[in-house]
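ok so for the tutorial part 2 we go from a plain amino acid sequence to predicted structure tokens. step 1 is just haveing the sequence, like this:
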Amino acid sequence: MRVDIYEPLWRIGQTLKEPAFLPLPLPDNRHASWRELRIQVDFFRRGGHQVAEKTGIFSPKFRLKSNLSGDQFLAFARSHPDADVCFVNVFPTMPYYSYNVWMQGEAAHPGLVQRAQRLLAAAGLDWDLSKTPRHHRGHLCYANFWVGTPAFWQAYVGEVLDPVARFLETCPQAPEARAVFESAPYLVEAPFLPFIAERLFSTFVSRRPDIRTAPFHPVGHDPLANCSSAFRREVVQHLRARVDEADAANHFPESLIREQALFSKLSTMYHHLHFQLHSHPHLVPEEMPPSGCEVPAAPPVEGATG
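step 2 — the prediction. this is what the tokens look like for a chain of 306 residues:
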């Protein structure tokens, strides 16, 4: 089966990081602050998602974040022809210290959930984020590393992301729009919008049990190897057995959810302090956008908060 993955190129002379991917030139970088949301919506509106059986758009940081080659993921996607969407979550420890993407997002970027809820309502989406279910390994996809069928693109990008984009395009001065372009707490300058948009994928698939998903899980891989600090390793070790048990039973005690919320905040606090002293493995200077873009310090194709 044909699976196409495109890699955005936004600088003059920029070349593919992943030779197995296809180039996606971005001659107009005025919407750099939108990150993948703008790229996915524009691609969808052009009908680019209708060419192959499955299509995706991956950041040049795919190998850096996933430790996978493009060929490896393409082979995985081709081996699941019946799936509506195939994806890889490059932060496999997050489900241990966060109940879902919004718990983690609010801990990392305080104010994110309220802004997201108001944006979705303004765009005509009746999602109540406070009722978002548990996000386990079958839902999580930080960094937008997914490939979907044309029908999946229509359901997700066409019916979720495109309405959000149209609201932002037509009502840029609305309070809900202005709020998501305010600077979010993060390691580099970036607005709330990309952190909101990134979490819509997991929220969408968790609301749609009819969608056939194929998450990539390396055989024998220990999530502890992905911990970015000794503190997070201790947190995961502390919660891991109980979280795995709750996921297996499909029942999360309220006490465990509260404990996850606490450790999500503590982990984020330590994470920010840690990377004030150490370089972050996902912030690569050469991938910063050219001067004159809306968010000069943040790469135009960057997703996860990590």
